[in-house]
TrEMBL record, chain A:
Family matches, as Gene3D superfamilies: MetI-like (1.10.3720.10)
Record keywords: Cell membrane, Membrane, Transmembrane, Transmembrane helix, Transport
Membrane topology recorded in Swiss-Prot or TrEMBL: Multi-pass membrane protein
SUPFAM superfamilies for the chain: MetI-like
Residues covered by region (Disordered): 1-20
UniProt-recorded name of the protein: Carbohydrate ABC transporter permease
Membrane-spanning intervals of the chain: 28-49, 90-116, 128-150, 162-182, 203-228, 262-283
UniProt similarity note: Belongs to the binding-protein-dependent transport system permease family.
Regions annotated as coiled coil: none
Record localization: Cell membrane
Span of domain ABC transmembrane type-1: 91-283
TrEMBL record, chain B:
Keyword Transmembrane tagged: yes
Keywords: Cell membrane, Membrane, Transmembrane, Transmembrane helix, Transport
Species: Actinacidiphila epipremni
Membrane topology (UniProt): Multi-pass membrane protein
Coiled-coil spans in chain: none
InterPro entries per UniProt: ABC_transporter_permease, MetI-like, MetI-like_sf
Protein name according to UniProt: Sugar ABC transporter permease
Pfam families: BPD_transp_1 (PF00528)
Length: 298, 321
């Protein structure tokens, strides 16, 4: 490299190459572009909201996303769309399943994560590798034999196949997420707890667990949303209308062809996604960071 | 297992301080404590993962309708699958088409938008959240219903295209367009890889870009010679996850086709055919065989991606190839 080239490299930014020179209209172009993209991305959600408040005739005749004449009829219509059972029942069922799934996942996964991240024992790295492999395992490989097992237990058409596995840390992804977080907690804290006479059990409960709170909250929300949105497992295990969850209740609308059912269908879809929205609004930072730190499934 | 050990590496946000050596021996209680904490996980692994895995391998060599005991039939299920089941091959083709289109498009979109958002502007956080939102909603039945309605005859998309002069299409009931509609639903969820790309981009030291500027690199060169190599672990991580996820797509196909995989089997995803075989036709032996073929396919693809990653993924810590 010649001296001149070296010198050129040291010149202040004023003489920097052309592409980096600030251009005043650039931020504007950027905002227009990003906002346009955001509108496209959010459009289906807007459409869903709008349609849920449209009268049936307007759904057929107009394609504007927002209703001309607002109506609230779609909500009671959708709520009572199935004879003998309301969406209230479906929501209650979904809530029970999701609630237990969250508790089970938090307890069992945090126990395993504590062992993997802070305790020494033989075979740890092999087991950790095995745990990571189970994250990648397609669930569809397990569904047939699991069904056979649960049938033997007499659990078909109950909530148990949807809840019990969560208490045994089958959602290994959350172990991984918590391990990542717990590794960042300084070891000196464990040492201090040990000097104060804490064994591993009390250290877990009173020292590490409280410090893991952000990861626990993230896990709780994701675990809730995934269980709440889960369709495949619930479809397989639940047969009685009275046991149905919100996703299965929604899927019943598919049988009712014709655009007249769009309104009630979208009204119930809005209600089904409402909890997810609320969590999103309240915890968006945590959710996005959680998704970042561990690369979630979509 | 080098393949799994590397999985946790590109995770950018939480740095893992692993320098520390094994702690000094503690009491006996301490050494067994690890196993005690892992007890629920062990039980779950045995009862709900490894057990079923082996059981389904056995079932795949049998005829089993869940009522009578499984009847050993040897390789009959596999033979039938590969020689006389056109729907099986059809399902494989639909799934591969889906995987091959969705994965690169979704990652490409995710990376492009991440690059767009990777700067200091007011409101970045809001946009980032908005773009991530579909990834939270996307796998739900509700959104699949929205898609079904928007793309059906007289739906918003069909009429929208008609208003700009394109022919009216019923995407949902036209065998050529039903799969693309589902592909679009998946690409809409580009936010999940995007946030991971964004975090990866933030880790690239600004000095490297300054150095590239000094060397007179243009935008394009900066992208190919600085961004791509340094982001390659994150790209690989996203590629792996999205590919494996794409193989397992189920809900959109089920809802959009009403559970049939139609029209004309155009949305008969592998998982959907597996479901029909098992839970509509009660052919659990055959469904188990299908499950194992899926597992083998995913394993082969994963292994191949890890093998290929040695060529193009750059680990800056020197532990590269």
């Amino acid at each position: 490299m010649s001296d001149q080239a070296l010198l050129a490299g040291r010149t202040p930014p004023a003489a920097a190459p052309a592409p980096r020179r600030p251009r005043p209209y650039r931020p504007l172009v950027w905002y227009v572009l990003v906002t346009a993209l955001a509108v496209v991305v959010v459009y289906p959600v807007i459409w869903m909201l709008g349609t849920s408040f449209k009268p049936a005739t307007e759904i057929v005749t107009s394609n504007r996303p927002w209703p001309l004449h607002w109506t609230g009829h779609n909500f009671p219509d959708g709520w009572h769309a199935n004879p003998g059972v309301t969406f209230g029942r479906f929501f209650a069922n979904s809530l029970v399943i999701s609630g237990f799934a969250v508790v089970g996942t938090l307890v069992s996964c945090s126990l395993a994560a504590y062992a993997f991240s802070r305790l020494e024992f033989r075979g740890r790295s092999v087991m950790f590798a095995g745990m990571v492999v189970t994250i990648l395992l397609p669930y569809h490989v397990l569904i047939v034999p699991q069904y056979a097992i649960f049938k033997r237990f007499g659990w078909i058409n109950t909530d148990l196949p949807l809840i019990a596995p969560k208490f045994l840390a089958t959602e290994a992804f959350f172990i991984f997420l918590m391990v990542q977080f717990m590794r960042g907690i300084p070891r000196e804290i464990d040492e201090a707890a040990r000097l104060d006479g804490c064994g591993p059990y009390r250290t877990y409960l009173w020292v590490v667990l409280p410090l893991t709170r952000p990861a626990l909250i993230t896990s709780a929300i994701f675990s809730f949303i995934w269980t709440w949105n889960d369709f495949f497992t619930q479809l397989v295990y639940l047969n009685d209308t009275s046991k149905f969850t919100v996703p299965i209740g929604l899927s019943l609308f598919v049988d009712q062809t014709g655009m007249t059912s769009y309104g009630p269908m979208m009204a119930m879809s809005v209600l089904a996604l409402a909890p997810v929205f609320l969590f999103f609004l309240a915890f968006q930072r945590l959710l996005v960071d959680g998704a970042t730190s561990s690369g979630l499934k979509g | 297992m080098s393949s799994t050990a590397r999985l946790d590496r590109p995770v950018p946000v939480v740095p893992a301080p692993r320098k520390r050596k094994a702690a000094p021996a503690r009491g006996l209680g301490d050494r067994t404590a690890g196993y005690v904490f892992l007890l629920p996980w062990f039980a779950g692994l045995a009862v709900f993962t490894v057990g079923p895995l082996l059981y389904s391998l056995y079932l795949s060599f049998t005829d089993y309708d869940l009522l009578d005991a499984p009847k050993w039939t040897g390789l009959a299920n596999y033979r039938q699958m590969f020689t006389s089941d056109p729907r099986f091959f059809h399902a494989v083709r639909v799934t591969l088409e889906y995987v091959v289109v969705v994965t690169p498009v979704k990652l490409g979109l995710g990376l492009a938008v991440a690059l767009l958002l990777n700067r200091r502007r007011r409101g970045i956080g809001v946009y980032r959240s908005l773009f991530y939102l579909p990834s939270l909603l996307g796998t739900s039945v509700a959104v699949a219903l929205v898609w079904r309605s928007m793309f059906a005859q007289g739906g918003a998309v069909s009429d929208g295209l008609a208003s700009v002069g394109l022919p009216k299409t019923d995407f949902i009931n036209d065998p050529t367009w039903s799969l693309p509609a589902i592909i679009l639903l998946s690409c809409w969820q580009f936010g999940a890889p995007m946030v991971i790309f964004l975090a990866g981009l933030k880790q690239i030291p600004a000095e490297l870009y300054d150095a590239a500027d000094v060397d007179g690199a243009g935008t394009w060169q900066r992208f190919w010679h600085v961004t791509v190599p340094l982001l390659s672990p994150v790209i690989f991580f996203n590629l792996l996850l999205e590919t494996i996820n794409a193989f397992q797509a189920f809900t959109p196909a089920f809802i959009v086709s009403g559970g049939t995989g139609g029209p004309a089997d155009s949305t008969l995803f592998y998982t959907l055919y597996l479901y029909q075989t098992g839970f509509n036709d009660f052919r659990f032996g055959y469904a188990s065989a299908m499950a194992w073929v899926l597992l083998a396919a995913v394993a082969v693809v994963t292994a191949a991606m890890f093998r290929l990653s040695r060529v193009w993924v750059f680990y800056g810590d020197g532990g590269a190839r």
